[in-house]
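Page 47, continued from p. 46.
Same chain as before, 423 aa.
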Amino acid sequence: MKTAISFALFLTALGLSVATVSTASSPGVKPEDVGLSSERLQRISQMIARRIAAGEIAGAVTVVARKSKVAFESSQGVMDLDSKQPMTPANMFRIASMTKPVVGVAIMMMVEEGKLHLNDPVSRYIPEFRGMKVGVVQPPQPGPGGGRGSAEQALQFYTVPAQREITIKDLLTHVSGLGSGPMGNSGIEKVARKDGEKLADYIPRLGTTALEFQPGSRWTYSPGAGFETLGRIVEIASGLPLDQFFRTRIFDPLGMKDITFWPSDTQWKRVATVYARTPGGLTKTVQANDTLSRNVYFRGSGGLFSTAADYVPLGMMLANGGELSGKRLLSRKAVEMMGAAHVKDTLPGRAAGEGYGLSVRVVTDHAARGTMLSDGTFGWSGAQGTHFFVDPKEGLVGVLMVQTSIGELQREFEDAVAQSVID
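Result:
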């Protein structure tokens, strides 16, 4: 079903004004007690309100924490334009690729326990990944009329041996070439997962696909295959299904109760609707991955649903050097390794001022990136617009939950949080 309405009409229907669509909860700590400005934090709500008024998002939940304390929470707009249900802190969001840093934490836990090493070849755990090939595009052949041929011909390629095996670190940093472009994806389509298959059933078939480039030669995002493979490696190393590992080793210790691969019936009622921006306004989109999991296939690449409040503890644990409320998941050195720039911004595919760590982007030069965040800040985003960052230097965590993807909004949120630091 499509929904394309202007914000003015939306407000008229609700009988509301912009000023009344924002509700801020009491986080239990005064911002000034953790070196933040209460007045400046309100600029976050003002920024979100402008986006809602422009009809760019339906609503949002924002949370800011510092020094392991939540100092700001706000919910604005609505979770669904048709039902007009107000957005609340209890709303859940498809966090998509914000699942990847959770996998990153799981991998680092296994590293610390000696169950795997970052430089291990993937084939050590999944033998089918041994001897992978790299795709080389064939130039399109002239068509019958002297043209360059069809689009299908343009995607033809042959393969050559990979110069080395892909490693766990390659997958974490998106330099493996696995599932990173049209050549590899064409093979993935041929071995597509069947309904009801688990990671153990499907992931080995990815070893038959072509890598997009020689491992380590460039950075290109692997939206699905790379981190789904890492999820399977966590299962093998730990002896637990990925959802159970997440729950028992990460979520429960951190008190993250409302985060899951598969929402219950009552939780589904709180899941915010996803919208795309179109010339006619916001349009509701159908999410295919709602039926992909069926609580059987745990997509480490992007399958989690969460509230804003339930994702914040993960960020606070990382900002605090691996520990939160007496529960230590990682050592300080492991967190430093995770947030280090293993891939420099000089590698082809990276943006100026942005390196890449172990499952997270890393600010390597805040001036080159054009951000107020400190060098060393790391985090990631989700395809439907969710976003988080951890600034270890400032002990600062920001979480933005929306369900419309706007890159500029994520940058505005970062700066709105950063400018609130006064001590």
